[in-house]
Amino acid sequence: MVAVDLKSPQGVQYLENYLSQKSYIVGYEPSSADVETFSAIQAPQAKTPNVLRWYNHIKSFTDKERKQFPNKKAEFSASAASAAKPADDDDDVDLFGSDDEDDEEKERIKQERLKAYAEKKATKKVIIAKSSIVLDVKPWDDETDMKQLETQVRSINMDGLVWGASKLVEIAFGIKKLQIMCIVEDDKVSVDALTETIQEFEDFVQSVDIAAFNKI
């Protein structure tokens, strides 16, 4: 497990890169791993958009809601007191050889692996990977026009995105959330980009969660 000091610039950058491919610290729903990481990091800046998006999303939950998140372990140890590895420490990112190999040997191994990968990819049948996703879209309050909210969501048009069925699910105190399904082509549609686009409808949307995520 990698120890990451989230108070340091290196630690924040580590988290930025980590969240560039993920909606949450672990899996497809908020968990105790998100709470632990959230508690260890300072308020992020605009220069780390993935961290900022994730931070504001976790911040939108109340303390009571966070305590009810499922218990999961992160791939890294999020601690403000832990010692982050130096930026030039390549121990964890050396994909083609160990530190005691010279540059020429590492380059040879790299080229061999790239060649093997290219040959394998050239003979592999192209399969369009798709995913079925169910999104929970929470409105700002009980006065939000849910029909208009759904209209705004369905107005999002992306190559590789197809909207499906939807329904309103009561949360509490008369407030309902929009639960809507969509099919996406994995190579064309980023789930993070889709959820962020929905959250841009600030007059209607408070937050967006992934309720279900299945490969087709």
TrEMBL record:
The keyword Lipoprotein does not apply. Residues 130-216 form the Translation elongation factor EF1B beta/delta subunit guanine nucleotide exchange domain. Keywords: Elongation factor, Protein biosynthesis. Residues 88-105 have a biased composition (Acidic residues). GO terms for molecular function: guanyl-nucleotide exchange factor activity; translation elongation factor activity. Pfam families: EF-1_beta_acid (PF10587), EF1_GNE (PF00736), GST_C (PF00043). Residues 76-85 have a biased composition (Low complexity). Residues 95-121 form the Elongation factor 1 beta central acidic region eukaryote domain. InterPro entries: eEF-1beta-like_sf, EF-1_beta_acid_region_euk, EF1B_bsu/dsu, EF1B_bsu/dsu_GNE, Glutathione-S-Trfase_C_sf, GST_C, Transl_elong_EF1B/ribsomal_bS6, Transl_elong_EF1B_B/D_CS. GO terms for cellular component: cytosol; eukaryotic translation elongation factor 1 complex. Residues 70-108 are annotated as: Disordered. Belongs to the EF-1-beta/EF-1-delta family. This is Elongation factor 1-beta. It comes from Aphis gossypii.
